[in-house]
Design a protein that fits this description.
Distance between the termini: 14 Å
Strand content: 25-35%
Order of helices and strands: EEEEHHEE
Radius of gyration: 12 Å
Number of helices: 2
Strand order of the largest sheet: 1-5-6-4
Mean pLDDT: 90
Low-confidence stretches: none
């Protein structure tokens, strides 16, 4: 696969949990390493193992929100 799409109940990656922190900053694009660091610091949106494999194989990850229109941009990890 060249990319994988995930559908979650949030728009994508945030600086902190947007459900508990209204000031959380949305992150439209981030590197594998930045995503891995967020997950290891407690973000529960994807697993570190998933991110490690994607990084190793160069697979682009795209997170969408299933509660919104699929055309709404989410977060891209590459």
């Amino acid at each position: 696969a060249s990319h994988v799409e995930f559908f979650k109940d949030v728009r994508g990656f945030y600086s902190s949990d947007p459900k508990t922190n209204p000031d959380a900053k949305f992150m439209a694009e981030l590197s594998y390493d930045d995503a891995i660091a967020l997950v290891r610091d407690g973000a529960k949106i994807l697993s570190a193992r998933c991110l490690d494999h994607a990084k190793r194989d160069g697979i682009r990850l795209h997170l969408h929100c299933f509660l919104e229109d699929t055309e709404t941009p989410g977060s891209v990890i590459s």
